[in-house]
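stuck on this fold:
=====
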Amino acid sequence: MGTETHLRINPARKEETTSRLPPRVWAGGVAVRSIFLIILVILTARVASPQMERLSSVYETPGDLIRVLMGIAVCAWFIVNVFRLPKDSGAYRTWLYLGLALLPLAALCAYVVW
């Protein structure tokens, strides 16, 4: 009991964030991600807008006020994430590949909601 063995677990080796990522993959991933987030901002702004045409009518019902405030917060979060790029090189590949399926779906949702 006097000698205890302490195991040290080494964290996985960190790969460089730009480990041989082709410029086209990076640009495509950034473009698809940015377009997708911008579409989400547009959808959120449309859904969170007040039911009446006037913005001053938001104070008439508490539900509208809460929906507008939450919509503003979500839109701000999406806009911040447009400018914060992923640090992992695999994220750009993922956005590029998934974006090919997500962008048409997001565009269709925006068309239907509008």
User: Anything to note?
Assistant: The mean pLDDT is 82. Residues 48 and 70 are 8 Å apart (CA to CA). Residues 36-113 form one domain. The longest helix spans residues 23-48.
